[in-house]
Write a structure and sequence with these properties.
The chain has 2 domains: 89 residues, no CATH class; 68 residues, no CATH class. Helices cover 37% and strands 10% of the residues. The radius of gyration is 17 Å and the shape is globular. This is UvrD-helicase-domain-containing protein. It comes from Violaceomyces palustris.
């Protein structure tokens, strides 16, 4: 079965750009946590953020929310939950974390070092869309007759 994608806001609030996720949805983990029994890496999340962070381990997730709303906290908590919750049976190299900016990727790596440890963080696939795609093209490009020493150019490089 192919993974499904869901879009949830980091916080439920008035927004015409995202769909709300009901905070009463149970996590898909084999463990259901009460507010005071959550592991430390999930303890600081609101109910809505918690629902997003623990939303279906076999499903991709996109977080849409404004600045300062907790997106990075939700995403890093989700990555921690994916690899630390025994009900998920995932290793760090099974998780791909894609961001828009190098700054966001760097911040997520720092936070994940604290949440899951530097050894696990080093095994994650984490980066910008461009860096992640380039990494996979360099690794698997030969399957489509692409040499791994290609260069990526933008309009200014012409």
């Amino acid at each position: 079965m192919a993974p499904t994608k869901s879009t949830v806001p980091a916080e439920v609030g008035p927004s015409s750009h995202s769909h709300s996720l009901s905070p009463q949805l149970p996590p898909s983990s084999s463990f259901v946590y009460s507010q005071n029994q959550r592991p430390p890496y999930l303890a600081s999340l609101s109910d809505t953020q918690f629902a997003a962070a623990t939303y279906g381990a076999s499903k991709s997730l996109q977080i849409l929310a404004g600045p300062g709303s907790g997106k990075t906290r939700v995403l890093t908590s989700r990555v921690a939950w994916l690899i630390l919750d025994p009900g998920n049976s995932l290793q760090p190299e099974d998780v791909v974390v894609v961001t828009f900016t190098n700054k966001a990727a760097s911040e997520m790596k720092k936070r994940l070092d604290v949440l899951v440890g530097p050894e696990r963080t080093a095994r994650l696939i984490i980066g910008t869309f461009h860096a992640t795609c380039a990494r996979y093209l360099r690794k698997y490009g030969q399957l489509i007759d692409l040499r791994n020493n290609f260069s990526i150019m933008d309009a200014d490089d012409r």
